[in-house]
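Hey, I'm writing a tutorial for new members on how sequence and structure tokens pair up, and I'd like a real worked example in the thread rather than a made-up one. If someone can provide the structure for the chain below, I'll link this post from the tutorial.
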Amino acid sequence: MERIQHARQILEAKREEGEPWNLFRDVVLPGALAGMLGATIMVALALPLGVITHRDPWYAARLAGGVFFREAPSGTLAALLGLAVHMAVAGGLATLFAMLLPRGGTGTAALMLGVLMGLVLQTVMPALVVPWASPPLDRAAPHGALLLLHLAFGASLGAVVPARKLVTHLDRMRRTLRGVRAAVA
């Protein structure tokens, strides 16, 4: 049974390799989908963490809003801007990951590399990016929560491979329908 699955993976990889590389199909869409999934998972984990630690579900979003409100981010606008910044950064990082990930890779390899990227983000973000980008987040220094959130984001990057396969399949269907339409017309 394992040999059949392995053969199917090889055939699928060869079929994907036969497709010409397309920036939008192979990098941008899968990266954006995985980034939004990762950002959503991070928010879903950060909401209860905020309730447990500060009795405020939007605590993490407000801290991320410290990019715009440097002193003490409070209110709905700070939370919304924090969520927007968070989603944009997650989409960009996941798109970068999709650009670096080879097309013929497996979901397991993407998952492991994604977790490794989550660890790299945990190393780089609190030390280099957060003090400069969001002083309120730096003052709060929730390093344990950031480790959990970055690992969850890294694990979600494993979704790049299935997203790539889905987008490739939809693109193939679109081209087939276009060919059928042209043949009928």
